[in-house]
Write a structure and sequence with these properties.
There is one protein chain. The longest helix is centred in the middle third of the chain and has 22 residues. α43 packs across α44. The radius of gyration is 36 Å and the shape is elongated. By secondary structure, the chain is mainly alpha-helical.
Length: 699
Amino acid sequence: MVHSTKAQRETAGPSPAAQWLAALDSRPAAASLAAAQLAPMLTHMLEHPDQALASAHIVATAKTFKALADMGRDAAVRAQLAATDLARATSTLLRQTEADLSNNNSSGRAERVFLLVQLLRCVCNQSADHDGARAALLEHGAVAAVARVLCSDDVARQPLPLGQAAFGAALNVALDHADCADALLAAGALPPHVRALQPGSDALAIWPLVCSSLDNLCEREAAVAQLEQDVACAPAMLQALAANARALAELGDDESDGDDEPQVRRGAMRTLLWVLCEALEKSAVVRQQLCEPAHVLLLLDVLDHYLAQPVEPAETAELAAPDAQPPNRPMPQQNRYADAAAQMLVGVSGEDAALALFDDAALTARLLAMLAPERAGDRTHDARAAAAALCLGNLARTDAHCEHVVRAHPQLAQALVGVWLGDAQTVDVRTRHAASGLLKNLCVAAANKQRLADMGLAAVAARCMRTAVVPVQANCIGILRHLVNGASALQTAQALLAGDACALAELLDAVRSTDIDGIRCEGTRLVAAVAKKAFLPRAAADADALRALQPRLAELDLVTPLVRLIMLDGQRHPLLQQESLVALTVLASAPAAPFAARLVCLLVPANSVPLATPLAAAEDTVAAEGAVAAEDTVAAEDTAAGFDELLARLLRQEGAVWPQTTLQAKSLVAQLQHAVKQDPAAHDSLGLEILHTKLSPLA
């Protein structure tokens, strides 16, 4: 490239840019552009960029690009411009102008800023809905230059017009264009977007533009990597969220004076909320950046802000049915913004790095206040209590933390049992789900089992387990399983067997008729635990009382769900398979109960194969495919292995079978052999033949 001297640059006479401007007329943009012959002027700029940027010509150059930017609003003109060297010329001058300003070149600074604004406007309008122009701007370095402008202090000092032009260029050049968006992110364009949305910024007028650009950039996976690298970015987003919430509270709800500030702030908050929520969901690193007490308190502030907002009917209609929610996820709040804030709180508090938050007095006090039972039934307070229970449940993931909650805060524990879980008439289902999850965690600690049982938790959980809301039902099953495996075993078993239509009988019906893993597997584990406690009691103090429950248990079919779990889930869950085999061995040893006879009966394939047929296969098939589904089911039953064959495989230790599982299977067969000797006539003849000829030789 040939460079002219300073004297040559400032030679008197109009520049090609000025001449081109003079050639423009008042005709429509496309016709005027064709008559003005743009190509020679662009060629001159590319060959002599320093002359175009000389102090004598810089204003004319700026006016030229202003005219081109204005023309670029027209789609037909954009198509004409894309066929020229405009993208290359714009990129060349943009790079040089940005470099001059970043080097504190004070000579003609105001004129250079004016030119920079027009170049950015030209980038913005050239790239509107034109991927060819975007690719050319990227190739010639304009995208990286836009990112450098965004990162400069000039944007913060002059949000209008420089910030407006820069964020507009970033939005249009990267809109639905992956390469440009990734280039902006790689050049560090994300943090300037977050800084521009800080409440103290003077850029309120351009916040909608900043939000649109930020939202577009954060659709890229590279945005998450940027947030992971810049440890200040996610906390800054959260601080901006909370600060805008406070600002909106001060502004109030009165918008009668036509002030659009509340609307602009709400839009900025929504963008920040979604961006941060998605980043936290995707990245554990970003979640860990917020594992500080101050950050969690800010999350609670944001949650409070959205819970205080009226719920729009459209949002209420979008709520999923309670029984459609998976048991290990927070159930939705009354609006999607509060739900997003709750999800962020749960995500952050679920990190191992967050366990240290348990010792923060201010955070603990805030969570306890949110769980105060006096206002139970109030929609907003119930939602706060649900969030607090979820957060506290995540923090109470060690025995020491669980024991401290129950020991130091017995009133909280009692409120969780009697109100937040137990009062189904007053408390909404989301809060009961969260409270049951917290109680399930608290029950893990051995020291808490008897304390919580004494507060009535076993009876409350047995009652609430009968709900049709799957997440609450699953958590209550978990609570009872933890309680029965400890000092509270007797109280738990008695609660499950209380009444004619006892909770355990309903649970047996549920596990026999569901394909939901959280109910079938955990429910069957609870059945196994109750069977072992009643028929093989170990605690001397409660042994007689537990044995007294055996006649009531003998009236129930405890065997079928245990066999079904082995057949459906044995290979996927070897621990559950082992537990079920132990329970079946214990039940087979019960002398006065029909369990051994039921087991022998299920050794017949015709009796056991149907247990392994997934129920959903028929339920989810549309009517038009009913005949095909029926044929497939029959074929599956013809070829599926029965319980006898599964036992034989365990005895032969075929596949990935634990050695202790093979030993337990041998113990079960041996116990069945002993049981049938006592009364052979009480057992199914086909089952006896399979036991003697197929299984006994392997044991």
